[in-house]
Design brief:
13 strands, Rossmann fold, 9-stranded mixed β-sheet, binds S-adenosylmethionine, alpha/beta, 21% helix
């Protein structure tokens, strides 16, 4: 991991005001003068397991032009539900910085990491705004950004992070660096993608404080008309390394630009219009783990052998 500071960003924008992410170009426009710093109903949090944000969220410097970025309502809900002011929030695949903007607004200590330096430049650009904080808002906390790899968070101490809120690429659905950046998970074939997500999950487990939460948004795809359940495999990877599943939230998708099938003639399949937001918890010493066994790794020996009768519940 290599620190990429606000000063590094200022040095970059002296020579260029544009970066390339995937197939698109993003213009750097900081410093910004936003008009709004929170959503229209700032105190309303999600209470059910289906989340849907048709308006997407445009307050502060949030913008939809980082391909595949997540709605700011997602990190906002996670931060408000699972952390306190000053707590450390990590997004180790930070992209255009949505999570960090919410950290800045909500007074959380933000750590953002991305393998693609251009992504980190975009994130720093969107953090470049001043605002008059109402007196009842928590004070701002530091926000650090790094060019680095989610599989090796060497500058993040073990057991240090209060919340992970992150949104990986879904295998090759959006190519973030078109093969230019080594280690970009979006360039990998599915089998290698899962193997590498396992390394990311192990690092997430290491850096998180015991008992704290790791939220990860993952979507699925379709190949040769059939459903490819990427999210279910990622769920399995996170359970395999030792996380406990706390929530499985269905996040509805509104923009057809982000749906991943190409219509070819007759519509012989359903458009995928949802993603999974898994919220995992790192076990702590106080946990009586057998109590959570049905929300943890599924052991093959918990399945019945041929002809075996189920044991009656006592
Ligand atoms: C879906 S985007 C994240 C978008 C972000 N949530 C936002 O709102 O802007 C996924 C990001 O993961 C990054 N990425 C891919 N492989 C990575 C790796 N090995 N380590 C860290 N980041 C990686 C990509 O560069 C991309 O920016």
């Amino acid at each position: 991991m290599e620190l990429f500071s606000h000063e590094d960003y200022l040095a970059c924008v002296r020579t260029t005001r544009q970066v390339e992410i995937g197939e698109g170009k993003i213009t750097l426009k900081g410093p910004y003068r936003p008009q709004a710093f929170q959503p229209p109903a700032p105190d309303v949090l999600e209470t059910e397991t289906v989340w849907s944000f048709p308006d997407r969220g445009e307050w502060a410097t949030h913008s939809g032009n980082y391909r595949g970025n997540w709605s700011p309502y997602i990190p906002r809900n996670l931060i408000l539900r699972f952390t306190q002011p000053g707590d450390v929030v990590l997004d180790q695949m930070v992209g255009g910085g949505t999570t960090l903007i919410e950290c800045k607004l909500l007074g959380r200590t933000g750590i953002g990491v991305d393998i693609n330096r251009d992504a980190v430049i975009v994130a720093r650009d969107r953090l470049f705004f001043e605002h008059m904080r109402p007196p009842d808002w928590p004070p701002e906390s530091p926000i650090d950004t790094y060019v680095g790899d989610c599989r090796k968070l060497d500058k993040v101490p073990s057991n240090w992070v209060d919340l992970i809120a992150t949104h990986p690429p879904y295998a090759g659905i959006v190519l973030y660096s078109q093969g230019r950046v080594i280690g970009d998970l979006s360039s990998l074939k599915l089998r290698d993608y899962f193997a590498n997500m396992r390394l990311a999950a192990l690092e997430a487990l290491r850096v998180l404080k015991p008992g704290k939460h790791c939220a990860i948004l993952v979507g699925d795809t379709r190949r040769r008309l059939h459903y490819v359940p990427i999210s279910h495999r990622v769920l399995q990877v996170f359970l395999d390394v030792g996380f406990i599943l706390r929530e499985d939230i269905i996040k509805l998708q509104w923009k057809t630009k982000t749906t991943r099938e190409r219509w070819r003639g007759e519509r012989s399949f359903y458009k995928i219009a949802h993603e999974h937001l898994f919220i995992f918890r790192k076990p702590s010493e106080e946990d009586d783990l057998p109590e959570f066994k049905n929300s943890m790794k599924w052991w093959s020996n918990s399945l019945l052998e041929d002809g075996q009768e189920p044991t009656p519940r006592t």
